[in-house]
Amino acid sequence: MDGFEGNTGVIVVAATNRADILDSALLRPGRFDRQVSVDVPDVKGRTDILKVHSGNKKFENGVSLEVIAMRTPGFSGADLANLLNEAAILAGRRGKTAISSKEIDDSIDRIVAGMEGTVMTDGKSKSLVAYHEVGHAVCGTLTPGHDAVQKVTLIPRGQARGLTWFIPSDDPTLISKQQLFARIVGGLGGRAAEEVIFGEAEVTTGAVGDLQQITGLAKQMVTTYGMSEIGPWSLMDSSAQSDVIMRMMARNSMSEKLANDIDSAVKALSDKAYEIALGHIRNNREAMDKIVEVLLEKETMSGDEFRAILSEFSEIPPENRVASSSSSSSTSTPTPASV
Q: Domain named ATPase AAA-type core: which ranges (predicted)?
């Protein structure tokens, strides 16, 4: 940096999470001309971090730090430390002398989805939530390319009254068009189930989070990934992705026709996905009734249990079939769909 002598041995270090909007003058040679990207740790890094934070904790036989590391992509070092601390607290509350896989699972749920709430009493609302969550699971499982179901639960967490957890693919950074579209279908499964089972007049506000997610995903497919009939164009400047004002300016710089074409393409993707979701629900009503019956009784159902019942009534696409042990030893942090 200007102003320092060449022999003082002073190194100036700065950090930012928005390098894309820095003034180019700041990055010229002789200034901040070395950039080091520091991402969240990979699986080996997570394993090493877990070894550090597990040194003062006892674990039951069968708890593997390597498996925990594989299940927690995207977790920072602080997240991993918090995970083990939460698990230790849960084990103590349950009168255990060592942390089991159950405490690890519950801690991951708590970190990702929030605190556990009070279970709903039996009634129409609980039944509606059950059908909503099973709708996510059925539509996801029957749509080729969708992530596998890890579990379905009616135990509230955070603002969600129920959750369906999916196991992301091994490489979440490379996602195909088929996988993205399948996620939209799965995301609309809850609303589709409400409409088919209870009638259009009885659909609820519970799908608000789902609709926000699938709309955002459909827009990304059209404007960022070039996965629509508009063509392989990137219609949104990278600097506008996380800046509201920049997004508004980018929108205003488009022609009116292009903006309308984008809206039409997003709507077409969503409409097509919703029709597929409605078809899955209508064609698998008997399976859904059986799954919901079990879910209402147990309140939490593993992915294996769910697939075992569904496969009695419908054929699961080959690419969506998983080994029976996947739900208990998943390789990724599950992603929730909630109501």
A: 1-39
